[in-house]
Structure formats: structure tokens, C-alpha cells
């Protein structure tokens, strides 16, 4: 993910600025910071707010689509 212009396609400008400031404060690039956040979250277990089942964070979207279609 390039450092300049990436926010225009993905998030609001205010959020992008906050993420960039966090990355600079930690001495990281934006890409390194976001990859670190994603890898941590993918190992977590979440609880479905509708049925209470524990599901891996990476599988939550599939669970919602199969078990709770709109």
C-alpha cells in the first residue's frame, strides 16, 4: 500500500490521518501498522451478537452470511 493517496480509496481522510500519525509515532509505515492489526485480529475469537456462537474473526463474515442472511 503506497504511503501517498491510499486513503482516497479506502477510508475517510480523518481516519487516514489518524492511522498515519499512529504509524509515525510507532516508527512504522502505514502498511506495517495495518498488517500488524490484521494479523492480530485474524487469530481472535469473536462472539456473534445475534446467536452467541464463538467464531474466528476471519470467519465472522461467512458466519453472518450463512446463519443470519438479511
Number of strands: 2
**Total number of helical segments?**
4
Based on CA inertia axes, which overall geometry fits?
elongated
Radius of gyration: 16 Å
Order of helices and strands: HHHEEH
Give the helix proportion (percent range). 55-70%
How many strands, which pairing sense, and closed or not: the largest β-sheet? 2 strands, antiparallel
- Overall pLDDT: 80
Strand-pairing-aware structural class: mainly alpha
β-sheet strand percentage: 5-15%
Poorly predicted runs of 5 or more residues: none
Give the helix/strand layout.
Elements: H1 7-10, H2 13-26, H3 30-42, E1 45-47, E2 54-56, H4 60-67
Antiparallel strand pairs: 1-2
Helix pairs in contact: 2-3
Structure, described:
- By secondary structure, this protein is mainly alpha-helical.
- The chain has a domain at about 5-40.
- About 55% of the residues lie in helices and about 10% in strands.
- The protein has four helices and two strands.
- The protein has helices spanning about 5-10, 15-25, 30-40, 60-65; strands at about 45, 55.
- The chain has a two-stranded antiparallel ribbon.
- It is elongated and about 40 Å long.
- The N and C termini lie far apart (about 35 Å).
Provide a short characterization of the protein structure:
The protein contains 4 helices and 2 strands. It has 70 residues and is mainly alpha-helical. β1 and β2 form a beta hairpin.
Amino acid at each position: 500500500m503506497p504511503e501517498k493517496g491510499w486513503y482516497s480509496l479506502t477510508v475517510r481522510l480523518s481516519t487516514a490521518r489518524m492511522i498515519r500519525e499512529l504509524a509515525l509515532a510507532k516508527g512504522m509505515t502505514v502498511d506495517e501498522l495495518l498488517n500488524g492489526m490484521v494479523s492480530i485480529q485474524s487469530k481472535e475469537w469473536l462472539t456473534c451478537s445475534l446467536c452467541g456462537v464463538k467464531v474466528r474473526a476471519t470467519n465472522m463474515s461467512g458466519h453472518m452470511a450463512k446463519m443470519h442472511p438479511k
